[in-house]
Design brief:
five-stranded mixed beta sheet; 395 residues; single chain; 5 strands; 2 domains; two-component regulatory system; nucleotide-binding; 10 helices; Heat Shock Protein 90; alpha+beta
């Protein structure tokens, strides 16, 4: 059996007091109640007034204890108390209870209920001044001022509480956003780990495999030099990425001597040399101003070049021609890499995996920068093209 809990109307719902405030008020009310019990109840002289004053005092403490838990219930319970005070003229009972409720109402209840509570006590104050003696009219303005100060203080505390609650929500949102950004960054670094290290390891593997039966010392020396250079590059990138992924990123013992090279010109020179060592005829056109672009763009260009050259080594016919061209246009940087189409080089769906994982990672990176990326056959060639928009301050 499913039971649906019924909720109170919105204007009757209230918020709990802070534990420290509830405890402090409970102690204060208890001390006052004990003091009244030990001294006895002093009231009016009429036979009818005595029992009513005692009843009013009991109602007052009931309301004061109730307001510590539910302000809305306390206001409703206060209605018979106000009637008793109007009959007996016991100003202390009505004023103290009213001041506390006027103070706590904006802190714990809705604005509608708070307004009704303030209106109730204002009407009660006017009625008491009209019904009782010369004393109540003299108390009207001081009591009204006290109620106004209590209402202002309660409203100020309520505003402070709302501000703190908004700050806590904002802090929670920022923490969640930081966690999301951290996870996104980890995913991006994982893609870079594939793009960079896999490229270098592919070069090493292909260099060794292609020259495994060679007995020419000069050729073997050239291969070892290329392997050493690729191994150092892979180790450099691996240390850098592992250091960035490490939780204790403040420890710079492994990274103090490393710097993240974002020079496209130097990377192109290195890739040109590696492709030449593998027997490919590479032609590269790179403007010198390319290194003046933001690091985000240069690293993206570098990753595209590395992935494209890796695919050339894996799939293009040995000794074939390949070309990489980078153009700086007024509003974008355009990169194209072409090579002779290999027998096993087939179109890759950049949206699906795991085939073409590196190309898909590059496509995601370019898309994040607002650019366009494509990779596939074009006639008898394999064409990789990326167009990344430039920021206004770059152009």
């Amino acid at each position: 059996m499913i039971r649906v809990a019924r909720q109170l109307p919105a204007f009757l719902r209230d918020r709990p007091l802070a534990p420290w405030l509830r405890l402090s008020l409970a102690v204060l009310v208890t001390v006052s109640a004990v003091d009244d019990l030990t001294r006895g109840v002093a009231g009016g002289t009429a036979a009818l007034d005595g029992p009513l004053i005692v009843f009013g005092t009991i109602l007052m403490y009931a309301v004061l204890y109730l307001v510590l838990w539910r302000t809305t219930w306390a206001v409703l319970a206060c209605l018979p108390l106000l009637v008793v005070v109007l009959i007996t003229g016991d100003d202390v009972t009505g004023i103290l209870t009213g001041a506390l409720i006027v103070l706590l109402a904006p802190m714990t209840t809705s604005w509608l209920f708070t307004g009704l509570t303030w209106g109730l006590y204002l009407a009660w104050l006017v009625a008491a001044s009209a019904l009782h003696g010369p004393r109540w009219p003299q108390l009207f303005w001081p009591v009204l001022l006290m109620f106004f100060m209590a209402a202002a203080l309660g409203t100020g505390v309520q505003g402070f509480q709302r501000g703190r609650a908004a700050d806590r929500r904002r802090l929670t949102e920022l923490r969640e956003e930081n966690l999301r950004i951290r996870e996104d960054e980890r995913a991006a670094l994982a893609r870079e780990l594939h793009d960079v290290v896999a490229h270098e390891l592919s070069i090493i593997s292909l260099q060794i495999t292609s020259r495994s039966r060679s007995e020419d010392p000069v050729e073997l020396h050239r291969v070892l030099t290329s392997v050493q250079r690729s191994a150092h590059s892979a180790l450099y990138e691996l240390r850098l990425l592992v250091g960035l992924l490490r939780e204790g990123g403040d420890d710079e013992s492994d990274l103090g001597h490393l710097s993240d090279d974002t020079s496209v010109v130097r990377v192109v020179e290195q890739l040109h040399h590696q492709l030449g060592d593998l027997g490919f005829r590479a032609d590269c056109v790179v403007p010198e101003a390319i290194d003046d672009l933001p690091a985000t763009l240069t690293r993206t260009i570098i990753r595209i070049l590395q992935e494209a050259s890796t695919n050339i080594v894996k799939h293009a016919p040995k000794g074939s021609e390949c070309a990489a061209t980078i153009r700086l246009e007024p509003d974008a940087v355009v990169l194209t890499v072409v090579n002779t189409l290999g027998a096993h080089q087939v179109p890759v769906d950049l949206r699906l995996g795991p085939t073409g994982w590196g190309l898909r990672g590059i496509a995601e990176r370019v898309d994040l920068l607002g650019g366009e990326f494509s990779a596939g056959p074009s006639g008898e060639q394999w064409l990789v093209r990326a167009a990344i928009p430039l920021a206004d301050d770059v152009t």
